[in-house]
# Entry
Amino acid sequence: MAFLNIQCLHKRYADQTLFAGLNLSVERGQLVSLLGPSGCGKSTLLRTIAGLTDIDQGRIELDGHDISRLAPQQRGIGMVFQNYALFPNLSVFANVAFGLKQQKLDKALIATRVNTMLERVELSAFAKRLPHQLSGGQRQRVALARALVIQPRLLLLDEPLSALDAPIRRSLRQQIRSLQQELALTTVFVTHDQEEALTLSDRVVLMHSGEIIQQGSAENVYSAPVSPFAAGFIGHYNLLAGAAAASVLGRSTLSAIAIRPEAIELLDTPQADPRWGTPLAGRILSRQLLGNIVRYQVQCAEVTLICDCLNRSAADLRASGSAVWLGVLQAEVRTLAA
Amino acid sequence: MRQTNQRRHHSHQPSPQHRHYTLIVWALVGLLALPLLATLLYSLASRWGATMLPDGLTLRWYLELWGEPRFLAAFARSLLLCFAALALSLALILPLALVAHTRWPWLDKLMKLLMLLPFAVPPVVGSVGLLQLYAGGPLPLVGTPWILIACFFTLTVPFMYQAMATSLKAIPLRDLLDAAHLLGASTPQAFIQVILPNLRNGVLVALFLSFSFLFGEFVFANLLVGTRYETLQVYLNNMRNHSGHFTSALVISYFFAILLLTWMANRFSRSA
Ligand SMILES: Nc1ncnc2c1ncn2[C@@H]1O[C@H](COP(=O)(O)OP(=O)(O)OP(=O)(O)O)[C@@H](O)[C@H]1O
Ligand SMILES: [Mg+2]
# Structure
């Protein structure tokens, strides 16, 4: 039995139906990412779990008990908001202590627990500061500490890193992950950044307009998209259908196909190989340097394909306009449900 | 804000042009302060008749004023009326603003409209209407302080509501309440611990503003109640045939009370 179990969730707003029978389960101690484009209902799903948004129908079970009728105060859920939502009038210490204060715990005990938590997120030196005197990353760590100090049964993170710079985002991401594993805390993490979802989570749940499109391990979701939407959202898949798909595959096909840019080899000669069969002739349209990766746009008959190569040496870079041969790794070609 | 201003000052050399501006500003301030200074001098003069300068200085008028029971009573009444109106305003507008910004957003729009009324209806017109309504009938309030409290309350609504709305819009209200709820606080607890402290400065400024405004209110007070519950301004009006030195002392006393309040309001708004 999963630790968090959402069954047949229905939610409609005045002008739209958002969830029509959504199911989701999260195992104990797992970190699950909800990944999806803006407006697909990630925040709403999180808020219904927390009890901040009413549901129309359905069951939300936490540890075997239906919590869907409980007030947010009684659910024992910690949440971190995208805009931090720190209490502006309270110091860092008081912010973190807030939840424990509501439980009317002994002052000394509160102080010990708050200080331990502040140490964990490396903010002990900032305990007396007000939120507006902190950097974005520090604020988010206060928000995290505030949610964790009440020892929640479930942690919900709503795009906690999206307002931060890339380097801080990466380090904070690791910090969240190691805290989560250390505490074995069941966590739902909302993001619209696929890299974040893939690196961080035990399981990735891909959402689109209120529906779950695909879920599974990061490897599975990344390498085997089930639909054109999934392939378009994750990675930079080449999506082909009809005649285009047939010309690349070398045989006719009814369904659409998806090919990852790194599953196409750039060759100097039309050498055949069991991995890719007969190479396709093409011409480089443009070249984009992405650091360790070089991304080529290649015109191949009527089809334009994106190919990624490792950027091993500057001498290997191909000029636009030059002719190449493309070897499409057949094992990596995904056939999509229409 | 202040930081950018400071930076601008540092980078600015005091150019001759800059000095001109300073001169003009001070000249204007002097011009505006002149009547006040004259009043101050007059209130301190023992006699100032046919001569260029007063004969001598004295605190006689102030002593007389502050020893006058009718003045003290009027002062106390004015204070009482203002405090009562402000208390009423706080008690009614605060919950209203909270509800308008959490539950029912349409209330906010309605209030924006209602806020214009005290400005749209001139006091003379308004008081005539109120006189007709409350002179007799089931609620004969004219001549009692109650009608003034209620009327003063309506005058404070724009200041109070606007101040609260601005403070409420400046914080992520919904997220703060949600966060507090998830941490175990009930809605009243969340308001008291998290929302109200953020409104404090804005509301204090609005209170001071409304106070100085109400303290100087004359038209409603005179027309609706008059001498039956004499306020400071009505008293000043009734004393207009008394010694000019005496009324000058009254005006200066009143002015300093307001100055003190304005200064306090400024202090609070700067720490906000
Ligand atoms: N209070 C509300 N009233 C009406 N519609 C709402 C309300 N809250 C959300 N919605 C709608 O529900 C849909 C999902 O919103 P939600 O905030 O869950 O999206 P999201 O996936 O979190 O997007 P983002 O990545 O931009 O945060 C949107 O189309 C939004 O317009
Ligand atoms: Mg969202």
